[in-house]
């Protein structure tokens, strides 16, 4: 019965992913008929305007949302494993905000000097910012015993980094403010094929690395003593968790800015769907779930108040925040029992 449930869960996630991709490609200020989609990709007699909209704007954006959404969900799962805390995530721990701050500094410096920065430079800058904030959170975890206070510390770090970023954006050149402002609030708009290739490589390698860690993660979740008895080098494992989660979070922030609540909410939603917490199943399901979640949220962000586009974090917060509230209430009830 369990195997059937797992199979059904992956079929559902795969089906939702395909439907979400198609809807993101077809729906917008100009609706592209579904019957024209095969012709657009096969380059056989499709409308030139439709082809340009799909291949140059909507498809790379949809792929970016799927790739980055999956990476963000995996980053959240790793952080929840690392801290043994169900509401740990790149956004709540301030990691996304730290990455955002360093990327904003690099962007303003390059734009001010008329320099063009590559996608790789953006990722490296975001990774540096993420690692600084992650290091601070880890140091705080050695001082603070209560995980609730650690989350509060992470949120405060995030606010400080966001405040400095807003200050930087405010004093950027007038021509650059709009782009910087949109990015700093979180958005999948303006994605190019070069961006998609880079994020696919970085996220893909990191995701494979996370999947290969399924057995060590399973042992670590049983407790550090148990993991050591199973022959796991806990120190090296924890370093690897930090690196992988920071790379994934940094990649998202470099291209889309900070995206809230995906890293917290998706692992719990997927766990409910699967009915298990086995990492070997949860890790690929988290990636698929994050992809679907971000694709749906991005579609709503683009279309709800068109032509005005909402920031992606506005929509993800609406769906993700209730999940976090439910988790906190549920844990309180469990402790009371």
Task: Explain the overall architecture.
This protein is mostly helical. Helix content is 79%, strand content 0%. It has 14 helices and no strands. It has helices at residues 2-26, 37-42, 48-83, 95-112, 119-143, 147-170, 174-185, 193-212, 214-221, 224-229, 234-256, 262-274, 279-303, 312-336.
Radius of gyration, CA atoms, in whole angstroms: 20 Å
Percent of residues in helices: over 70%
Name the shape in a single word: globular
The secondary structure category is mainly alpha
Helix and strand run: HHHHHHHHHHHHHH
Sheet of most strands: none
Which regions contain 5 or more consecutive residues with pLDDT less than 50? none
Beta strand %: under 5%
Overall average residue pLDDT:
85
What's the number of extended β-strand segments? 0
The number of helices is 14
Question: What is the CA–CA distance across the termini?
Answer: 30 Å
List the helices and strands and how they pair.
Elements lengths: L1 H25 L10 H6 L5 H36 L11 H18 L6 H25 L3 H24 L3 H12 L7 H20 L1 H8 L2 H6 L4 H23 L5 H13 L4 H25 L8 H25 L1
Helix pairs in contact: 1-3, 1-13, 3-8, 3-11, 3-12, 3-13, 4-5, 4-6, 4-11, 5-6, 5-11, 6-7, 8-11, 12-13, 12-14, 13-14
Summarize this entry quickly.
With 337 residues, this protein is mainly α. Helices cover 79% and strands 0% of the residues.
Keyword list:
337 residues, globular, 79% helix
